[in-house]
Amino acid sequence: MSTTTLTPATAPAAVRRSRAVADTGVLLGRSLKHVTRSLDTVITTALMPIAFLLLFVFVLGGAIQHGSGSYVSYLLPGILLITVASGISYTAYRLFLDVRGGIVERLQSMPIARSAVLWSHVLTSLVANLVSLVVVVGAALIMGFRSEAGPLAWLAVTGILLLFTLALTWLAVIPGLLAKTVDAAGAFAYPLIFLPFISSAFVPTATMPGPVRAFAQNQPVTSIVDAIRALLNGQPVGSNLTVALVWLVAITVVAYVVATTIYRRRRV
């Protein structure tokens, strides 16, 4: 009697999915161990946004007209996005090291789900950035941030931030796979860090000159910031939430397709 050995490519779909989840869990554990062994990366990710909070709240905040309420509450949504934008550079950096060090090729030669390699880095990014976001919110509370949001509103804010992190992480995968140097792998995050400065994150867009105002009002950060700010203040979100979700889903889908296409071509 002959038996047939099921490889990952020939196994039934349900078995492949189960293996993919298991393999992703194993590689996620590996990535998280690397993060816990270099906690300075998480701390560094949170330090810059906290420095921005201190600068704008206690140095510049008194000169900025933002409407009613405390400036730290007005400022926090944009600072949270900057936290994520600075954190995902480490995702590109860690993936770059795995690619250049031959770890990715070695994993691809093993009988594991190919998707597990990328998803482990993506999930590590979600966990690490969530920790950084909690640290930044804690710092904002010490500075006087208070919220009128209920549990559902906080859940919605968390969901937006996680989706934002997911979108930017898949963007980070692309330079992580393509970069030729360490500096190039992380440099792509710099424009993302400064994008909130040309939005409603720090000042109302109505105060900006015409061309700048037009860009600020129609770029994704403004709708995301306005949606989070309304949720935290217990105010109606309006169309901002819908616009923000459309932007985030579109960015995630496009970045995912591009990243996975590049990944598949690298192993052909």
TrEMBL record:
One of its GO terms (molecular function) is ABC-type transporter activity. GO terms for cellular component: ATP-binding cassette (ABC) transporter complex. One of its GO terms (biological process) is response to antibiotic. It comes from the Bacteria. The keyword Cell membrane applies. The chain crosses the membrane at residues 42-65, 71-96, 117-145, 151-173, 185-203, 241-263. Residues 40-266 form the ABC transmembrane type-2 domain. It is a multi-pass membrane protein. PANTHER family: NODULATION PROTEIN J. This is Transport permease protein. It comes from Microlunatus kandeliicorticis.
